[in-house]
Design a protein that fits this description.
The protein has 7 helices and 9 strands. With 204 residues, the protein is of the alpha/beta class. Strands 5-4-1-6-8-7-9 form a 7-stranded mixed beta sheet, with helices on both faces. Strands 2-3 form a two-stranded antiparallel ribbon. The N and C termini lie far apart (44 Å).
């Protein structure tokens, strides 16, 4: 069975947060450490982590883990450049890779189960896009078959995978992930998340 790779997009500058969101405390580790461990324990392989802003501070959180860390020198030009960087590395590692899951580092409720569910739905339906469904949208984490790699690689600016999902709406199979609506963009988002997750989050 051909592999499904996974790319964690974690190159952004977190300007609205005021600090690298990748380094937010999540239980006993950083948010990026949590998200990458979730990815590693999924059925996906290889795992690629794309860093950019503050990479010198974030890299030590990821390097001990079983993932390929790559730096995107063009991160300031937008998320599209990180998607392109990740897919180039994925193709170099495994030219036969069948599909890729794209995920962000700021959805704290992402789980190994939801990633594995995306892959299982892809195997069962053969649809070229398997997207998470939340807040009445189809978004990431999302799986894209190899047939869409070139389209993902030609996105430009601060455009993410959701544009490709929209353009191929008829080809999308949705997997419910209501918690996907919660992301950490601002310090208020983080404070709210901490307050709701007291058993899991240690206050700093």
């Amino acid at each position: 069975m051909s592999a499904v790779g996974l790319i964690v997009l974690a190159a952004g500058a977190s300007t609205r947060m005021g600090m690298p969101k990748q380094l937010l405390q999540f239980g006993e580790r950083s948010l990026i450490g949590h998200v990458v461990e979730v990815a590693i324990t999924s059925v996906c392989n290889p795992i690629i982590v794309v860093l950019g802003a503050s990479s010198d501070r974030i890299k030590p959180e990821v390097e001990p883990l079983d993932a390929r860390v790559v730096e995107n020198p063009y991160w300031a030009e937008g998320m599209s450049t990180s998607i392109r960087t990740g897919i180039e590395v994925l193709n170099a590692i495994n030219p036969e890779v069948e599909a890729v899951v794209l995920m962000l580092c700021d959805q704290p409720f992402v789980s190994t189960q939801i990633i594995d569910r995306l892959v299982a739905a892809y195997r069962a339906t053969g649809k070229p896009i398997i997207a998470s469904e939340y807040a009445e949208i189809s978004g990431v984490p999302a799986l894209f078959s190899r047939a869409l790699f070139s389209e993902l690689s030609t996105l430009s600016g601060d455009v993410g995978a959701r544009q490709v999902i929209k353009q191929h709406a008829q080809a999308v199979f949705g997997v419910p992930f209501p918690e996907g609506a919660i992301d950490l963009d601002t310090s208020k988002d983080y404070e709210t998340f901490q307050a709701q997750s007291v058993p899991f989050i240690h206050w700093q």
